[in-house]
Amino acid sequence: MKVCWETRKILEEPDLKVSCTAVRIPTYRAHAEAITIETEKPIDPKEAQTVLANAIGVELTDDLDAKKYPMPLTATGKYDVEVGRVRRNDVFGENGLDLFVCGDQLLRGAALNAVLVAEAVLDPNF
């Protein structure tokens, strides 16, 4: 539930419909989440992958044939968050996606985010 609450708080959308699963397993220091989103407009998973691949702070890791997908072990020690397993969500149809995310909680989850927020606040072009 914490992920749902934090998402609503960060986006300032108290009524935002959020459904996700956070699995807590022993890992070195990375978190992993299975996320389902509903979009206002239809979205193709391939288009979403393109957007994610070009997003700052995101590493698209989504090549099942090569057995490359987000994993806590490979996300540890990285500033970028690994995102993959991007696919259409059957519940929301053309307006929904499922994805899997892994990120280093010490780098991206705490210290780096604080620095990035401070930089954004101080940036006159933000």
Named CATH topology = Dihydrodipicolinate Reductase, domain 2
Q: Helices and strands: which structural class?
A: alpha+beta
Q: What does the radius of gyration come to?
A: 15 Å
Percent range for β-strand residues: 25-35%
Spatial order of the strands forming the largest sheet: 1-2-5-4-3
* Count of the separate structural domains: 1
**What are the secondary-structure elements, in order, as H or E?**
HEEHEHEEH
Q: State the total count of DSSP E strands.
A: 5
Envelope shape: globular
Mean residue pLDDT: 87
Number of helices: 4
Fourth-level CATH superfamily: Dihydrodipicolinate Reductase, domain 2
Low-confidence regions: none
Label the CATH architecture. Answer: 2-Layer Sandwich
CATH class: Alpha Beta
The profile of the biggest β sheet is:
5 strands, mixed
- Through-space gap between termini: 31 Å
Protein name: Semialdehyde dehydrogenase dimerisation domain-containing protein
Organism: Fibrocapsa japonica
GO molecular function: oxidoreductase activity, acting on the aldehyde or oxo group of donors, NAD or NADP as acceptor; protein dimerization activity
InterPro entries: Semialdhyde_DH_dimer_dom
